[in-house]
Amino acid sequence: MNKNFICFNSFFFLFFFSLMNFFFFIYFMIKNLVLFIEWEVFSFNSNVVYMSILIDWMSLLFMSFVLLISSVVIKYSNSYMESDKNLVRFILLVLLFVFSMMLLIISPNLISILLGWDGLGLISYCLVIYYQSYKSYNSGMLTALSNRIGDVFILICISWMLNYGSWNYIFYLNFMKNDFSMQMISFMIVIAAMTKSAQIPFSSWLPAAMAAPTPVSALVHSSTLVTAGVYLLIRFSDLLMGMYVLKFLLLLSTLTMFMAGIVANYEFDLKKIIAFSTLSQLGLMMSVLCMGFPKLAFFHLLTHAMFKALLFMCAGLIIHMMFDMQDIRYMGGMCKYIPLTSLCMVISNLSLCGLPFMSGFYSKDLMLDSISMMNINIFIYVIFYLSTGLTVFYTFRMLFYLMISDFNLVSIYNLFEEDYNMIYSMFVLLFMSLISGSMLSWLLFYDVNIIYMFLHMKIMVIYVSLVGMLLGYLVSLFNYNFLNKFMLTYKISFFFSTMWFMVGLSTYCINYNFLKFGQILYKNDRGWVEYLSGQGLFNTLKFYSIFYYFFQLNNLKIYLFSFVLWMMIYIMIII
Fold first, then answer.
1. Considering only CA atoms, which of 226, 315, 229 is closest in space to residue 273?
2. Is the model's pLDDT at 520 over the cut of 90?
3. Which one of 43, 214, 250, 500 has the lowest number of neighbouring Cβ atoms within 10 Å?
4. Which of 88, 65, 36 is nearest to 308 (CA)?
5. Helix/strand/coil (H/E/C) assignment for every residue in 358-372
6. What distance in Å separates the CA atoms of residue 174 and residue 107, rounded to the nearest whole number?
7. Residues of the chain by 3-state class (helix, strand, coil), percent to 5
8. At a CB cut-off of 8 Å and minimum separation 6, what does 270 contact?
9. Looking at the domain assignment, is residue 549 inside a domain?
10. Count of structural domains, the chain
11. Position 489 in a domain
12. Is 538 found in the same domain as 468?
């Protein structure tokens, strides 16, 4: 089948359904409608299996954004992965990925949520290992096993809900708050959301998932995999408000935001810097949700999806033209050679920083103002503003390395924006990065909330942003040793640059003892242990494969002999 035909059809249908969902969202919002559909799949005696679907303004709006980003990413992939022989398989995997997310969005039922949740985990593994190297295999396994923890907790939630008579959690959120079973379910839902949205201590899989192709990263980090946990907590927010588990999550999510902001300043891999940026924004969404603003967290989730997808697509095009080089120290002067991509890159970065009147500004400024009005811990308040400054810090450091410093890769080069399929798809997201914030603020927050603040408290965001901008400029101007001196000592910088030792704790710490135990067994006893474990299994499989190969040689004598043998067995059984 023609690759271009499949890509165009997928793009067209996803874009059409995105527009249709958006118009339905406006209708549902104006009329204040909620549609709950139960479809009887099959009935066997007294057992009836239902498929439940919940359609309201939130699910329609989220589906509209997911479908828009997916359609644009597929159009972008048609050019980005043009030389790939398995492009059709890649497009089908992306479509399955989007379908799993759709299933999760419209599900008021824990069983169907598990199907979408597990589908996201499984297909993300297939996409992360797409390039089939040792690095991608390791990254895929880390991603799949980290997400598997969340799957297990949702399975336990399903078993805890057996006594309620239905798995439609939407029925029990408001009047079952004091029930012990519901409190346990809320605790497990929070743990599951932490694994999918990569909060501490499950953060190490998010930068590892950068082994996937860049279009997949644009989809995963904007609106599908990592936002699933935030979306699930938004749906469960009525149950969770006031519970102690949210205070615990508030601490972890603010630490995640702070940690990701620091680590991004030590990173030189372009895709990993943007991945840590996603991790920081996820911590921001989670912490705002924990403070009692689920609608605000949803607002930032949607605005962030647009400029983060655009940021990854710009990074992919730059990596594509830099001969697959991802180190920002080799880049520089990009605005001279690829002005359109540089324009998209700068605008998406400024939107991430919260520059006034871009989409990121509307959500981030409203969140920080709401937090400033709350009676919260000074530690959380300080960490929030520090993380905002760190966002500007690593953004401007990356922009200076990419746009202003000298080109350092090869002496003979030819950089130009060769493919307008990529440019067109990026310009769709560029337009949305500019208007989505104001558009959504008018649509979602139609009631007027007046916020009274001191002048210096209001301008605090500008203070920390200017300090972050200055530090980003200084760090990009000097070399890496300056950054080490800036963070006091080499040991402290090593602690910060390794995600607070989280990569080691989540991989080497778990694997090392098992491997050490296996080595001791192998050295001390090569007898029955060896025959019952690896070597014995290998020999058994080898024997049976030779045996079956002998039968598959299409030899007439073997067929006749086996036929006579089976007839004799059959006659003996009958007699």
1. 315
2. no
3. 43
4. 65
5. CHHHHHHHHHHHHHH
6. 18
7. 75, 5, 20
8. 315, 318, 319, 326, 327, 328, 331, 398, 402
9. yes
10. 2
11. no
12. no
pLDDT cut 90: percent of the chain above it: 14
The model's pLDDT over 162-198, given as tens digits with 9 standing for 90+, comes to 878 778 888 887 777 778 888 888 889 999 999 988 8
Q: Would you say 221 and 312 are in contact if contact means Cβ atoms under 8 Å apart?
A: yes
DSSP codes joined into one string, 171-193: GTTTT-TT-HHHHHHHHHHHHHH
Residue-level pLDDT at 80: 84
Residue 385 has pLDDT above 60, yes or no: yes
Which tokens in the block code for residue 440? 């959504």
* 3-class secondary structure, 159: helix
Where b means 16+ CB within 10 Å and e means fewer, 209-248 reads: bbbbbbbbbbbbbbbbbbbbbbbbbbbbbebbeebebbee
What is the 8-class DSSP label of residue 574?
Answer: H
CA distance 469 to 400: 11
- Residue 185 CA to residue 200 CA, distance in Å, equals 20
pTM of the predicted structure, to 2 decimals? 0.85
* Angle between helix 57-80 and 3-31 (nearest 10): 160
In the structure, what pLDDT confidence band is assigned to residue 336 with cuts at 50, 70 and 90? confident
| 33/39 Cα distance (integer angstroms) | 19
| pLDDT score for 60 | 92
Helix (H, G, I), strand (E, B) or coil at 49: strand
Structure token pair of residue 361: 């500004």
Who contacts 50 (Cβ-Cβ below 8 Å, separation ≥6)? Answer: 38, 39, 40, 41, 109
Q: Are residues 538 and 440 in the same domain?
A: no
Rounded Cα distance between 408 and 479, Å, is 14
Domain that holds residue 341: 3-166+176-477
Distance (Å, whole) CA 371 – CA 366: 9
Considering the domain boundaries, does residue 518 fall inside one? Answer: no
| Distance linking the first and last C-alpha atoms of the chain | 56
Tell me, yes or no, whether 441 and 551 share the same domain. Answer: no
CA 570, 573, 574: angle at the middle one, nearest 5? 90
Question: What is the sign, positive or negative, of the torsion defined by CA atoms of 65, 67, 70, 76?
Answer: negative
User: Can you tell me which residue has the tokens 């057992």?
Assistant: 47
Three-state secondary structure call for residue 419: coil
The answer to whether 164 and 157 are in contact (CB under 8 A) is no
**What is the model's pLDDT at position 132?**
83
Q: CA 147, CA 124: separation in Å to the nearest integer?
A: 10
